[in-house]
Amino acid sequence: MNLPRGWDFLTMDEIGEVQAGRQRSPHLNKGNMLPYLRVANVQNGWIDFADVKEMPFTDKEVATYQLEPGDILLSEGQSLELVGRPAMYNGEMDLCCFQNTLVRLRTKRHSSDFVLQLCKYLFDQGAFQRIAKKTTSIAHLGVSRFAGLSAPVPPLSEQRKIADILTTWDVALDKLDALARARERHKKALTQQLLTGKRRLNGFLGAWKKVQLSDLAENIADQNKGRMGTKSLYAVTKAEGMIPMRDHVKGESFERCKRVETDWFAYNPMRINIGSIARWKGKQPVMVSGDYIVFRCLPNLLEPAYLDHLRRSWMWQSFVTRGGNGSVRVRIYFDDLAEFTFRCPPIEEQRQIATILDIADQELALLRAQRAAVEQQKRGLMQRLLTGRLRVKT
Q1: Alpha-carbon dihedral angle through residues 4, 9, 12, 16, given to the nearest 10 degrees
Q2: Local structure of 179: helix, strand or coil
Q3: Global pTM?
Q4: What is the C-alpha R_g of the chain?
Q5: Which tens digits make up the pLDDT trace of 331-349?
Q6: Which residues, at least 6 apart from 85, have a Cβ–Cβ distance to it below 8 Å?
Q7: Domain range list for the chain
Q8: What's the mean per-residue pLDDT of the chain?
């Protein structure tokens, strides 16, 4: 890689002082109790001070492990995809140290804001993951491996300008995150009010009835038996809903697969208590495993979109968790699910409530898409700025 004039490849220990954190041990109990940061506190680009622990530090240890404004902390021991996640300490606490699940980089003659952006870039590019030592459940960045990692570094004046530009993008991302959190809180409050009847919509005065799911929905066990061929086989996940199944399935298993039509629900009876249930919103019927449970709402009694919001509520989750006793291995069949009891509004009010909550979901989805687009643009700009392909005037 050819660098612009004035740039140079520097190792991390040439950029600054690399220091491992203080070991946490019950045998090390001398000194004064002081707060310290650990891997759980270091998020991607920011530090969470909501749960800061304490342990004893001697005066000598304080001199070594005390944090200063501008110190960059990176996760040393973490899952592989999160190892090396960086954030900067800005002096938020009067006196704070750090544990050995973190590595500290204290810059010498370089801009700490630039070095933070450089570490974010290396993290996004997988540089820390590539040098990490992997075990069965955790990956370690390694102080010496991190110290010897090299990266392109421009002159100080250009560092500061690059940091200013990229920090502006970070501020924009932080504002979008704050807006998304506010929208999520509003949606949660709105859901609680509307699904419990604490807030009624204008024009609706009809009483809500206490019902069981079995009163308003029915189990469907319509097997494929060759009618739908061997295509359109789907699985249900908590994060993505119904998605095409990628795993290999033997031909004869398609006979048992169950049909799922628009607005029907499907779930794995062994995984519903961790949220793996989904409503099919596609226009064409699809199939799911014959081991899945498929059910539908009875027309003009229960609106599928309303149930879709209800099954994401605390009421549903509490019922399913109790039914599964917290274990992913407990099977919850439709007869079990059918006992879910809730207060249900008339069908037209269900539809209006579902429409309002759908709009709230759409607004959140648009906000998240906007955030993802801004982040993607920032990453592209970061790559050009931090490799010297795009120069800035200083």
Answers
A1: -60
A2: helix
A3: 0.82
A4: 27
A5: 899 999 999 999 999 999 9
A6: 42, 43, 44, 74, 75, 78, 123
A7: 8-153, 158-183+346-394, 209-344
A8: 91
**CATH class of the region 209-344:** alpha beta
What distances in angstroms separate CA 176 from CA 44, 57, 285, 372, 374, one per listed residue? Answer: 15, 39, 37, 10, 9
Q: Are 157 and 392 in contact (CB under 8 A)?
A: no
The residues, ordered by sequence, that sit 6+ positions from 303 with a Cβ below 8 Å of its Cβ are 297, 347, 350, 351, 354
Give me the phi and psi of 167, to 5 degrees please: -65, -35
Give the pLDDT score at 295: 97
Q: CA torsion sign, 226 to 229 to 230 to 234? A: negative
Write out the E strands in 12-170.
16-20, 32-37, 53-57, 71-75, 77-78, 86-89, 97-98, 102-107, 133-134, 139-140, 150-153
Homologous superfamily of the 8-153 domain (CATH)? DNA methylase specificity domains (3.90.220.20)
Banded model confidence at residue 329, pLDDT cuts 50, 70, 90: low
